[in-house]
TrEMBL record:
<dbReference type="InterPro" id="IPR036291">
    <property type="entry name" value="NAD(P)-bd_dom_sf"/>
</dbReference>
<dbReference type="Pfam" id="PF03447">
    <property type="entry name" value="NAD_binding_3"/>
</dbReference>
<comment type="similarity">
    <text>Belongs to the L-aspartate dehydrogenase family.</text>
</comment>
<dbReference type="InterPro" id="IPR020626">
    <property type="entry name" value="Asp_DH_prok"/>
</dbReference>
<feature type="domain" description="Aspartate dehydrogenase">
    <location>
        <begin position="154"/>
        <end position="238"/>
    </location>
</feature>
<keyword id="KW-0520">NAD</keyword>
<dbReference type="GO" id="GO:0050661">
    <property type="term" value="F:NADP binding"/>
</dbReference>
<protein>
    <recommendedName>
        <fullName>L-aspartate dehydrogenase</fullName>
        <ecNumber>1.4.1.21</ecNumber>
    </recommendedName>
</protein>
<feature type="active site">
    <location>
        <position position="203"/>
    </location>
</feature>
<dbReference type="GO" id="GO:0016639">
    <property type="term" value="F:oxidoreductase activity, acting on the CH-NH2 group of donors, NAD or NADP as acceptor"/>
</dbReference>
<dbReference type="GO" id="GO:0033735">
    <property type="term" value="F:aspartate dehydrogenase [NAD(P)+] activity"/>
</dbReference>
<dbReference type="InterPro" id="IPR005106">
    <property type="entry name" value="Asp/hSer_DH_NAD-bd"/>
</dbReference>
<dbReference type="InterPro" id="IPR022487">
    <property type="entry name" value="Asp_DH_arc"/>
</dbReference>
<dbReference type="Pfam" id="PF01958">
    <property type="entry name" value="Asp_DH_C"/>
</dbReference>
<keyword id="KW-0662">Pyridine nucleotide biosynthesis</keyword>
<dbReference type="GO" id="GO:0051287">
    <property type="term" value="F:NAD binding"/>
</dbReference>
<dbReference type="GO" id="GO:0009435">
    <property type="term" value="P:NAD+ biosynthetic process"/>
</dbReference>
C-alpha cells in the first residue's frame, strides 16, 4: 500500500486525514507543530517537527498541501530523497527556471511530480493544448472578499493580467491559473474578482482553439476552516491517491 507523507497539515490535509477510503498516511510535518500533532491524533501517524526528519521516513509519495513557499523550499529535496510529490500549491511552478529545474531533478531521480486538478474541472483534456492550437484561455475567478482577506461592499476587479504576476500577489488564491497554464502549455489571462454577493469560490474558464471552444463555470463550496480553499481541492487529492495503483486510467 502506498505510503503517504503530508507536508502541510492545514485545512486540505485535515480533509485527507479524515477520509475513510483507506489512504495510508505514515508521516506528518507542518511548520506549526500543533497542526501536525492534531492530524497525528486523527491518523495515528507520527508528526515530525523537523522537515529533515520527516523526509527520512519510509514514504513513497509526499502530498504538499502547505504553501507556494514550501514547494520552493522542499520539493527538490523530496525528489532527491527518492519520493514522488503531489504539488497542490502549483503556483510555485509559475517560474519557468524553477519548474524546468524541478522536472530535470525528477527525471534524473526517476520520480514523478503530480499536479492534481485541484479546485477546477476540465484540466485533463486541456492538455490537448500541447499538441493543438489554443487561441484564447481566460480564467475569471470570483471569491468572497473574506477569502481574499479584504473588505469591500461591492464587486471589484482586484487583478487582471498574467498568471505568474497574479500568483505572486495572491499565492493562496489563484494556483488554479498556473495549473491551467501547465496543462495547456498556453499563457492564461487571469481576472480575479472580489464579490460580497458570492459565498462560493467561482472559477469561469473560457477556451477557444482548433478543437472548438468551451466555457466552464464551477461554484465551489469553500472549506469551513479556510474559505480561500475549495473543498474540491482536497477531494481531488484523495481521488488522485486512490487511483494511483488502479489498472485502468481514466481521463487524458
Ligand atoms: N491547486 C489548487 O487548485 C489549489 C491549491 N491550494 C493551495 O493548497 C495549499 C494548502 O491549502 P490549505 O490546506 O487550505 O491551507 P492552510 O493554510 O489551511 O494549511 C496550510 C498548512 O501548511 C503549513 N505550512 C505552510 N508553509 C509551510 C512550510 N514551508 N513548511 C511546513 N508547513 C507549512 C501551514 O502552517 C498550514 O498548517 C495552499 O498553498 C493553497 O493555496 C488550495 C486550493 C486549491
Ligand atoms: O480553492 C480554490 O478555489 C482555488 C484556490 O484557492 C487556488 O487556486 O489557489
Amino acid at each position: 500500500m502506498i505510503r503517504v507523507g503530508l507536508l502541510g497539515c492545514g485545512n486540505v490535509a485535515e480533509v485527507i486525514a479524515k477520509d475513510k477510503s483507506g489512504i495510508n498516511i505514515v508521516a506528518l510535518h507542518d511548520a506549526v507543530r500543533e497542526r501536525a500533532e492534531h492530524l497525528s491524533e486523527i491518523t495515528g501517524a507520527p508528526a515530525y517537527d523537523s522537515f529533515e526528519e520527516f523526509i527520512r521516513q519510509d514514504i513513497d509519495i509526499v502530498v504538499e498541501a502547505a504553501s507556494v513557499f514550501a514547494v520552493t523550499a522542499h520539493a527538490e529535496e523530496i525528489l532527491k530523497a527518492g519520493k514522488d510529490i503531489v504539488i497542490l500549491s502549483v503556483g510555485a511552478l509559475a517560474e519557468k527556471e524553477f519548474r524546468d529545474h524541478l522536472i530535470s531533478v525528477a527525471e534524473k531521480e526517476g520520480r514523478k511530480i503530480r499536479i492534481p486538478s485541484g479546485a477546477i474541472m476540465g484540466l485533463d483534456n486541456l492538455k490537448i493544448g500541447q499538441i493543438s492550437g489554443i487561441t484564447k484561455l481566460l480564467l475569471r475567478t470570483t471569491k468572497n472578499p473574506r477569502s481574499l482577506r479584504i473588505n469591500t461592499g461591492e464587486r471589484v476587479l482586484l487583478f487582471s493580467g498574467r498568471a505568474d504576476d497574479c500568483i505572486r500577489q495572491y499565492p493562496k488564491n489563484i494556483n488554479v491559473a498556473v495549473a491551467l497554464e501547465l496543462a495547456s502549455g498556453h499563457e492564461v489571462e487571469v481576472e480575479l474578482w472580489a464579490d460580497p454577493a458570492v459565498d462560493r469560490n467561482m472559477h469561469e474558464i473560457f477556451v477557444e482553439g482548433e478543437f472548438g471552444d468551451f466555457y466552464l463555470k464551477i461554484k465551489n463550496n469553500p472549506c469551513p476552516e479556510n474559505p480561500a480553499t475549495s473543498y474540491l481541492a482536497a477531494l481531488s487529492i484523495i481521488t488522485l491517491l486512490n487511483n494511483l495503483e488502479k489498472a485502468i486510467i481514466i481521463g487524458t
